[in-house]
């Protein structure tokens, strides 16, 4: 059984919230896919990860065979409940992880946008720090990686979507803000 750490770096698309007090469905799909593939998932928000001591961070990152970091679109502004993962945090997590590191979400397709006049960081540069940069559905990628030992970029099927959404619902109880978390749905 593969231990899979899911780091929620948040998403804040115009049509979907994912920064606390919200939780996006993307991390729930990943969680459900890991369960469906026979893996052992553990979820942590980037804000909770930041609060860990160095020893706790090391223990968390060496526990997992696969570390999945999800980071979606972020709208410029201030967030009341959390702070999205930064590029340097992804580098730090990736460099200290024992197992494979998978980065999914819009940053895999478009990189990190330049905020405040800073240069954007393209996906080609992000790829230098992780094992897999997944531009399509990271849940499908992780499912295949656990189930078959290899994966390819693909979209989840409608049937997988239904199964993973239901199986991944239990993730909500692991969120820092539970029971005061607001679940986004598709």
Report on the structure:
It is a single chain. This protein is an alpha/beta fold and 186 residues long. The chain has one domain (3-167): Rossmann fold (3-Layer(aba) Sandwich), CATH 3.40.50. It has helices spanning 25-36, 46-51, 54-63, 87-96, 106-110, 123-126, 138-148, 158-167, and strands spanning 3-8, 12-13, 16-17, 22-23, 40-45, 66-70, 100-104, 132-134, 182-183. The strands form 3 sheets. It has a 5-stranded parallel beta sheet, with helices on both faces. It has a two-stranded antiparallel ribbon with strand order 2-3. A two-stranded parallel ribbon has the order 4-9. Helix 1 (25-36) runs parallel beside helix 7 and helix 1 (25-36) crosses helix 8. The model has no long low-confidence stretch (mean pLDDT 94).
Characteristics:
alpha/beta, five-stranded parallel β-sheet, two-stranded antiparallel sheet, 18% strand
Topology:
Elements: E1 3-8, E2 12-13, E3 16-17, E4 22-23, H1 25-36, E5 40-45, H2 46-51, H3 54-63, E6 66-70, H4 87-96, E7 100-104, H5 106-110, H6 123-126, E8 132-134, H7 138-148, H8 158-167, E9 182-183
Parallel strand pairs: 1-5, 1-6, 4-9, 6-7, 7-8
Antiparallel strand pairs: 2-3
Helix pairs in contact: 1-7, 1-8
């Amino acid at each position: 059984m593969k231990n899979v750490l899911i780091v929620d770096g948040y998403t804040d698309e115009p049509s979907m919230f994912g920064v606390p007090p919200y939780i996006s469905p993307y991390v729930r799909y990943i969680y459900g896919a890991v369960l469906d593939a026979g893996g052992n998932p553990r979820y942590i928000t980037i804000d909770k990860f930041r609060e860990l001591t160095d020893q706790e961070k090391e223990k968390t990152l060496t526990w997992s065979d696969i570390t999945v970091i999800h980071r979606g679109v972020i709208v410029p502004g201030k967030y009341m409940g959390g702070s999205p993962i930064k590029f340097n945090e992804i580098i730090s997590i990736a460099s200290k992880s024992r197992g494979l590191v998978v980065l999914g979400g819009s940053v895999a397709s478009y990189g990190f946008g330049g905020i405040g006049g800073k240069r954007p960081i393209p996906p080609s540069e992000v790829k230098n720090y992780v094992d897999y940069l997944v531009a399509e559905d990271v849940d499908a990628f992780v499912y295949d990686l656990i189930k078959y030992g290899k994966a390819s970029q693909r979209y989840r099927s409608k049937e997988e979507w239904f199964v993973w959404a239901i199986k991944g619902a239990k993730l909500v109880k692991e969120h820092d803000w539970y029971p005061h978390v607001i679940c986004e749905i598709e």
